[in-house]
Every structure is written in C-alpha cells, then in structure tokens.
Specification:
By secondary structure, the chain is an all-alpha fold. Among the domains are: about 70 residues; about 80 residues, no CATH class. It is built from twelve helices and no strands. The two termini are about 35 Å apart.
Amino acid sequence: MLAVSARTRTIARDTADGMRIASTALSMAEELGLDELRAHALATIGLAKGGLGDASAGRRDMERALGIALEIDSSVASAIVGNLAVDATFEGRLARTEELYAEALRLAQRFGDGATVRFIRANQIWVGFMRGNWDSGLDGAGSFIAECEAGSPHTMEANLRLIRGTIRGARGDSDGALADHMRAVVLARESNDPNQRVGTLTICATTHARNAGTTTRQRRSSRSCYRFSVSTVRTER
C-alpha cells in the first residue's frame, strides 16, 4: 500500500511527500526481501527525483528498478520502461522515446496487461504526431477515439482529440478541428488534472482564433468554443 500511495502522490505532483513514502516502502522491501516492491518503490523515487529537478539521479534509480524487475520477470517492468520514455521526452530525445515505448508495449503485451497496452498506444500516437507522422497519427487517434465512443472511455481521449483536431485543422478541416478540441475541453473539465484543463483550453482558444474569420458557420463554432473556454476558466477559479 505504501508503494501505491507513493506513486499516486508523485503522479499528482505531491513529489516530496511521494518520495518520502516511497523511501519508506523501499526500506521495508529491502528488509523483507520483496524484490517486486523494491523495484516499484525505487522507480517511484526515480520519478520523484526527476520531478524535483535531479533528472540524472532519477534516471539511474529507474534503470536500477528496471534491472530488478527484469531479473525477477515482473510485470512492473513495462511501467518502468514507460517512465524512462517520459524522461527521454522531457530531454527532447523523441527517437529514444519511441524506442522505449515500443519496448514497454512489448513487455505489457507479454504480461497480458491490457490497461497498460492501451495507455502506451495513446502515448505512441502522441510521439508519432510530434515526430511528423501525421497520417498514422490521424488513423491511430481515430481508432482510439472510436473505442472510447463505443463504450471504453479512457483518460487519454482528450489528448488524442487534441492531436486529431490539430491535424484536421492543419489540413483544412476547420469544423473537424473545432469539434475535436471542444470535445477535448469537455473531457478535460471532467478530469481532476488542472494542467490538462489549462493545456486543452489553450489549444481550443488557438483553434478559435484561427477560425474567427472564415465562414459564418465556423465563426459561430469558434465563438461557441471561446465562450465555453472562458466559462470553464471562470468555473475553475
């Protein structure tokens, strides 16, 4: 429970407290010889260190955690590789990010971890989009969104709607871009992540501004997006 609590707090950006709890969990795991818990706690410590500005030390801890997880053939290895992919992203090494997500996906599939497989798929779509693979990004985002609409909701739907909407807008589909970005705002508003809400609103507002001078229908959609964005910001205050 301590390791899970530490990870939850760290992801929620309560980084210092998350590292404190993870350090306690690591000490207990080492004392009791619980290697999987040790890997889990050490990975969280690495994640927390990165959040506190010590990226090199954090990466070393995550790599140590991965070594433990692979040695004992633990499914936690996939999540740790995913964390290393995030670390590579923050450093701007997107080619390395792509490689790490491919490895994380392979591990998740091997252990039959469907939830992690789906999460990694969404991240792979984002990396491909950032690297200019827009055709595959459009197809991948469309498939993922269709799954969500068919009754399998996911926290990454908002991000993938931002991706699909941005590609649509760049390719001249202003209505499609606005529809995706406005839906992303709705989904972000339902989340408990203020950073996601702010980022989504910013992109939606940009889409609104770009389409303010096109057809009457698009101007109406743009104004609707703008009004909804403003009302959401006021609500968040």
